[in-house]
Each structure stands twice: as C-alpha cells, then as structure tokens.
Amino acid sequence: MNPLDLLARIGRMVLDALAMAGRETLFAINALSHIFRPPFYPREIVNSLLTVGWLSLPVVGLTAIFTGGALALQIYAGGARFNAEAVVPQIVAIGMVRELGPVLVGLMIAARVTSSIAAEIATMKVTEQIDALVTLSTHPMKYLVAPRVLAALITVPLLVGVGDIIGIAGGYVVATQSLGFNAAAYLQNTVDFLEPLDVISSLVKGMVFGGLAAIMGCFYGMNSGRGAQGVGRATKSSVEAAAVLILAANFMLTGVFFSL
After folding, report:
1. Alpha-carbon distance 27 to 207, whole Å?
2. What are 22-50's pLDDT values in tens digits?
C-alpha cells in the first residue's frame, strides 16, 4: 500500500472519531439540558428508576461480593510473601471503594442497561414509533432520553454505594471464615482506614459512569440504522463506547481526586 494512502486512511479514521466524539458531546449536553426543562414525564422516570436501579441490584450484588472475596484472597496471598497479611482489610476497603466498586458497577450497567436502552430506542426508530411521537407533539429527547439519563444519574451512585458495602462484606466473610482474621478487628481496621474523600469519589464516579452509560445507549439508539442489523450494530456500539468512556473517565477522576 502506498504510504500516502495509508496516511490518508489513518487521517480519515481520526477525523471520523473526532466527529463522532463531537456528536456525542452535543447529544450529551442536549440530553442533560432537557432534564431540567418541562414538560416532565413522571411515569417514564419511575419506570426508568426501576429498570436502571432496582432490577440491576442482583447482578451488582453478585459481582461485588465475589470480587471482594477474590480481592481478599489475592491480597492475603501476595502479602504473605512480605509478611504483610494484616493489610487485607485496609486494601480490600480502599480497592473496592476507590476503584473496583465504581468501575465494576459501571461496566455492569453498561452491559445491562446501555444495551437495553440502545436496543429499545433503536427498535422504536426502526418501527417508526419515534416518528409517531413527533407527530403527537412529544419531544423524543424529553420522553425517551431525559428520563433514562436522570434515572441513571440518581440510581447508579446508589448502586455503587451498595456494591462497595457488599464487596467489603465479601472480603470480610472470606477473611474471617477462611483466613483466620478477627471479625471485630477486621471491621475496625476497615472503618479506620477509609476517609470521607474515598466515599465521595466513589459516589461521584458512580454518577458520571451512570450518565455516560445512559447517554451512550440513547445516542446510539437514536442514531441507529434501519433494520435488524441497524439495531444490532447500535446495541454493540453503545456498549463498546460506554465501557471505553467509563474506563477513561475513571482514570481522569482518579487523577482529579487523588493526585492533588
């Protein structure tokens, strides 16, 4: 291949990526602005709260408890090499609250909620239900996008908090039942080691991750192609974009909270 052709192809890919990022940013700003402007649709908001929050709780709980238990085992095994087994409660707490809890919940939401939102809205577009909403003078951004984004902004931080607690509980069960830790001492070390900034950063990450997950699902659903292939492509792209953005946002937020 001609080097100039290769360079041109790379340039087109970069420009396409930047254009997509620009469209996603404008869509996010538009979606967030519609949250605070009437009319509001309480029924859609409640349904979205249940779908995004309550129905995601089982998978979040299972993910968190197994992650906390595995983290305790790994830290104990690694610490044993340096006679540092006693740091298990502290590292489990900070690992779950600062990083693993928010990231794993965000990725679970991307897998479960983002894909669901994208598939639902893309199907509505393919079947011309969105056109019907416009005909009935109902703004699609207000009826479809704003309730889902608002629900994610409210419920995902709560899910992260619950996931943090369950993850720490998983580490506690493994440490006290399998590794010989004293239960009272383990809990005391956990409480003493965590700081308010750790909890605040975890909840803020949850809010950002939830917003990203919902916005990506809505964006790719609203911009899906026609037919079954369009729905499938929109669903796949929404999950990929949400997962990458969540990991990138986690890196940036960690730098903001803990590098100052």
Report:
1. 18
2. 998 999 999 999 898 888 899 999 999 99
Q: What is the tens place of the pLDDT at every residue in 230-260? A: 899 999 999 999 999 999 999 999 999 887 5
Distance CA 239, CA 245 (A): 10
Q: How far apart are CA 66 and CA 89, in angstroms?
A: 15
User: What SS3 string covers 196-232?
Assistant: HHHHHHHHHHHHHHHHHHHHHHHHHHHCCCCHHHHHH
Give tens-digit pLDDT for 113-141: 999 999 999 999 988 888 888 888 888 89
Of 107, 100, 108, 98, the C-alpha closest to 202 is 98
* Backbone φ/ψ region at 30: left (φ over 0), alpha (ψ -120 to 50), beta: alpha
Looking at residue 173, what DSSP letter applies? H
Find out whether the peptide bond into 39 is cis, omega within 30 degrees of 0.
yes
Which amino acid is present at 99?
E
For residue 108, which phi and psi values (nearest 5 degrees)?
A: -65, -40
Whether residue 34 contacts residue 146, with contact meaning beta carbons closer than 8 Å, is answered with yes
Averaged pLDDT, 3-26: 86
- Give the phi and the psi of residue 93 in degrees, each rounded to 5: -65, -50
DSSP, collapsed to helix, strand or coil, labels residue 42 as helix
* Segment holding 85, helix H or strand E: none
Question: Which residue in 175, 204, 206, 220 sits closest to 76, CA to CA?
Answer: 175
